[in-house]
Amino acid sequence: MLSKLGKMDIAFQSDKIELKNKELINLDKFVIDFTSILNKEKIKYVIVSGYISILFGRNRHSEDVDIIVQKIDFKRFERLWLKLYNKYECIITSDVEDAYNYYLLENTAIRFAKKETFIPNIEFKFPKIEVDRWTLEERKKLLINNHEIYISPLEIQIPYKLFLGSEKDIEDAKFIYNLFKDNMDIELLDDFNNKFKTMDLFNRFIK
Amino acid sequence: MKAPDVNIEELEKLKQKNFQERLDFIDRYTKWLKKTENQKWSSQQKNFSD
Fold this sequence. Notes:
The complex is a heterodimer of chains A (207) and B (50).
Chain A: E1 3-5, E2 8-12, E3 16-19, H1 26-40, E4 45-48, H2 51-55, E5 64-69, H3 74-84, E6 88-90, H4 96-103, E7 110-114, E8 121-125, H5 130-137, E9 140-144, E10 147-151, H6 154-164, H7 167-180, H8 186-195, H9 199-206
Parallel strand pairs in A: 3-9, 5-8
Antiparallel strand pairs in A: 1-2, 2-3, 4-5, 6-7, 7-8, 9-10
Helix pairs in contact in A: 6-7, 6-8
Chain B: H1 8-34, H2 38-48
């Protein structure tokens, strides 16, 4: 089913969301470039948290972009690391074995930035909890000016932002809800609000 | 579609861990800023801010 958001050129289809004619900001270009390497390596990932609202037009900055990446073995990670190192470097450790064994396998994120820079950076992590695994499994394909990236289902973003609870997070949640409330699975959203214990915040600030 | 089971205690711990990781990142970033010429870091900041 194709559903459009008025003049804002976003089309919702069962298997993808399509955002056309966006004037890309530098952060978009950074994300598209980084994720294109993951796409080429056929590594499953999902973008979560703050960048999603920025992507759809919220005017705020974010120094990092959170990406949950499927848990891959060391060999595959090393291959990805070498591909990334043409343009990027890990700003947490320069040692690929450290990055894998002492950070990722210990549920600590690593960060990649363009060489000789610090911001923006990609916060790169393996799924840590069931909610992460669900988000990765249920990720949505987004075509942004025909570039393919994968984002979290919006129904979990709102309760998760409310759970985080800062003013910035609540504003992000409201922004996403206002834009997409007619295109979301409201039962799923309610289910997450109940499970995250964020229904009161949702009724108070978002609805 | 149904939401998966959510363990709030686990989620709370993860929130604290992520916060600590962000604080650690700020330590790294400020160390980097202090050893980087103004022109270089501010040029990156300008590019980042469009």
